[in-house]
Every structure is written in structure tokens, then in C-alpha cells.
Amino acid sequence: MPMKPPAPPQSRKQRRAQGKDTANLQTLMERAAALQGRGDAAGALGCIDQVLAARPGHAPAHFERANILSALGRHDEALAGYDRAEQLRPGYPPVANNRGGALEALGRPEEALICYDRAVALAPDFAPAHFNRGTLLRNLGRFDEALESFDRAMALAPEVAALHHNRATVLEELGRLDDALAGYDRAIALQPDYPDAHYNRGNALRSLARLEAALASFDRAIQLAPDYAEAQNNRGNVLKDLGRLDEAVASFERIIAIRPEHHSGHYNLALCRLYMGDYSRGLPDYEWRWEDPQLSAERRAFDVPLWLGAEPLSGKTILLHGEQGLGDILQFCRYAPMVKGLGGRVILEVREPLVDLLTALEGVDLLLARGAALPEFDFHCPLMSLPLAFATTVETIPAPVRYLQADPARATAWRARLGPAAKPRVGLAWSGNPNHPRDRERSIAFADIATLLSPDIEWFSLHRDLPEMDAQGLHTRTDIRHFGAEMTFAETAALAEAMDLIISVDTAIAHLAGALGRPVWILLPHRPDWRWMTERAGSPWYPSARLFRQDAPGDWAGVLARAARALQAEFPSS
Length: 574
Fold this sequence. Notes:
Elements: H1 12-37, H2 41-54, H3 59-71, H4 75-88, H5 93-105, H6 109-122, H7 127-139, H8 143-156, H9 161-173, H10 177-190, H11 195-207, H12 211-224, H13 229-241, H14 245-258, H15 263-275, H16 279-286, E1 317-321, H17 326-332, H18 336-340, E2 345-350, E3 366-369, E4 379-382, H19 386-389, H20 408-418, E5 425-429, H21 439-442, H22 446-449, E6 458-461, H23 468-475, E7 480-481, H24 489-496, E8 501-505, H25 508-515, E9 520-524, E10 545-549, H26 556-570
Parallel strand pairs: 1-2, 1-4, 2-3, 5-6, 5-8, 6-7, 8-9, 9-10
Helix pairs in contact: 1-2, 2-3, 3-4, 4-5, 5-6, 5-7, 6-7, 7-8, 7-9, 8-9, 9-10, 9-11, 10-11, 11-12, 11-13, 12-13, 13-14, 13-15, 14-15, 15-16, 17-25, 20-24
């Protein structure tokens, strides 16, 4: 193939025109940046389009155009722009980095991570890519990897407030609350008017039970951003923790005024009112629990109407179905006889571990385990919506001394197995579901509960499964009996019938004991669940219950000391 002849040299006039053209394009690029900085994205886009009309292969213009489109939320178009910029200028780290941001916004996190990895590989000292990679890994729940990325970014850009903030959120997820607090403090030192840093600082302080300091942080976040609904929400929760319930209600009401569909605001307002005993206003808002992603309530989709008390049930079939924890099912299954009294056929669906125990529950025509095939029915109602359906108030709570019965044969077998009682018999339950979001607050370590183990009492563990550390501690004791895998709920109920007293933290065993009408002492954290209300020594839900409350967050020592004194009074040694 013959070689092309060399291009003729440019004239001075041509060189001047080309230089002028380049200067004009640079001026348009600078103008676009200035307009974008003033929030005029449309004007900026117009300038960039002029550049590309004059020079379609201008890689920086494609890159900046993609950035503007991304800022406008037009992420598909932005992605195409980044791809064109990459074709024209391969290996430019900011293109890979910003392309990852567009993919992340489009809900394609794994592809976004590949882009951030490429940006880091192209430029190991490019801090923004490490920062974005860490943020994405945090959002994916890969906290250890996220921390590594943030640490690398911090070494490169130690004065970036957002970096300290995002890194602190990861430390909080990893349970390193003091380190997280230090990170939020550093972010605020670098940027005092950073609402999110004040907000998350408040969350960390609340987790550390430093409630007054947490309240101050939420107040500062709201001062900086008056419509910050999440800060108002957590401010309300702290006020509730502090016992300032009227102020908490006002905070939750403010959230709803700002954002009427704010599900957490409605839900927490409901919890606060229920906690105060205001069931007439609390129960309707409690239906917002279905919208709260942090709650384990699962909305069931059925082709029949939800029943909340309005429609007649005579001649109809209704499905009552369990929700949330096992203890919740045990507490609210008491409504089944009331539903039956309205003249319909009652199907009760519960989690499988409770089926044997609830076989004889009054008012139930058909008992099923969750997952079993359901017959046809006309209405459905979650168990925890039944108080609303019956317009329950504190004064009208259906609270028979007992509404569950242990299987008589099992109860007889346990009494025979244990033999004659030479001492009072007390059953213990000191820890709950480890997956419960507040398990750290409501469970007690065995080493602590063991301070109650007086030799004047015969002690029994009512647990089936235990944390490994508790199991090891229990293994070394001879003054408490533990039956482990034998303890189905039906067997636990039968063993409970042989107890003179049951002592439990707020877990399913407490509800089981109360439903059986057994004497039960319930050990409660400083901010207990709404059903235990405030200050009361007894429960309107369980006549046989006595409540022992923390005087301050984390004060199990005080609770256990009072329980020990009460045991001495209840069972004086001979």
C-alpha cells in the first residue's frame, strides 16, 4: 500500500484559527463548570453540547456532560457518556470512578464495584475511588472490606469530613461505638454544619446509653436541617428513653407534619402512646408496623379482606395468623375465643414450634403450622391487630388468670421425673432471640443471672438453646438443671407447671408463663417494650406477673439485687 504524502504545513492563519477554536472550546468548558456550580444544569449542558457540536471527539466534554446528566438523575444517558469518554481516553481513573456512581444509582452495585476496582487499579492513590468503593461495600453489608477502603482513602485525604463520617458508620455497624463516635466528632470538627454527622453521632450516643448527649446531637441536626425527619424520629425515641413521653409524642407528631407518610414516625408514635397506655390512639397507628423495614412484621397478601372488627363474622371463616416473635403469638392468641364468640369459624396459623402447645386453645376450630395448605376463608386478621379489632383499652384487656394449658400427661411425667420437691422450684430464662434488634438490651449473661442461685432453691433452666458462652458457664454448675434439646414449647409448658416461680427476661418464656397463669417475675430493661408500660409493678396483660425494671440503662445489677431480696422474702430459708 503506497504511503500517504505528508500533509502540507499549516499556514500562520490556520494555526491562529485553530488556537482560537481551542480557546473558545476551553471558554465554553469553563462556562459550563461555572453554571453547574451555580445549579444551572441546563445551561451547563448547553455549553457542553456546543463543544461537542464543534468537536465530537472531545473526551473531557463527554465526561463533563455525563457528570451533568448524572447530577440530573439521567443515569442511563450518563452511563453512555462515560462509555464514550472511555473510548476516547482509555484508562482515565475519574471516568471509571464516575461510571461506577452511575451504575450504583441504576441499582447495579456489583458492576459499580468493578468500576471502582478499575479506578483504584489505574490510580492507587485516587482517594475518591477508595471512598466510593468503601461506601458501596458498606451499603452491601461488607463492613470489613468497606473499612479497608475507607482507611486507604483516609491516608490519602485525611481532611475530608464525609470520609470520616462514612467510615464512622461502618465502625458503628461493626459494634465499635467509641471509635465511631470519634469519627463523627472528627467529621464535625472538619465541617461543623454537617447534619448527617450530628444525626449519626446521636445514634451512636444513644447506643452507648448517653441519652442527654444524644438528644443534643439530634437537636443540632434539626437546627441545621429543620425538615430532617429521621433526626426528629430518633429525637423522639431518645425522649421516650428518658421518660419524657409528652415531648416524645410532640417530636413524632412533628415528623408526620413534615412527611405525612413517614412510616417510622407513625409507628414510633404508636409505640409511645401504647407505652403510655393510650390504646385508643396508639392501636390505629400501630398498623403502620407493616411499613417499617426494621420490624420483623411481615404483611401477608391474601385475596380476602383484612378484618378489623367491622364486618359480621356469623357464618364466615376467618384466618388468624401469627406475626413477629413467638412471644407475640403467645400473648395475642388470647383473642381467639373472642373472635369465635362472634359466630364464625376460626383458623389459627402459627409458627411450627407452637403447634403442640396451642392444640387445646379455646376458640380455635383448626390449628395449622405456618406453611401448611390453607383452606378457604372469608377474612383474615394478624394476631397483633386483634386489640384494634376489639377496640381494646388498658381497662378492657382480656386477661384471664390463664388461657393456655400444658398437656396434662406431659405435666404429670415431669412431676414424676423431678420427684418430690425438698425446696422451692424456680425456672430461669435469661436470654432471648439473639437476632432480635434489642437483644443486647433485654438479655442477661448467665454469669450475671447466676448471682440469684441461692442454695435454698432448686433451680431449672427453661432454655432449649443457649449462646456458647452461657452454655459453657452452665456446664460447670451443679446448682441448676438444664434439659437442652428436650425443651420444646409443649415440654417447657409442662415443666413450668412444676415450678413455684418463673423468672424471665422479656422473651417468649415470660409470655408462656403468664399465659399459663404461673407466678412469673419479668426482668425488664430501662426502656421496655410497649406492652409493659411505665412504672407499674404488675401487668394488665398477665395477672400473675411481677415486673422488675432497670432504674438506669444497663443496670441489671440493681434489678438482680431487688430480685434476690424478693426471693428471700418469697421463699425464706427454714
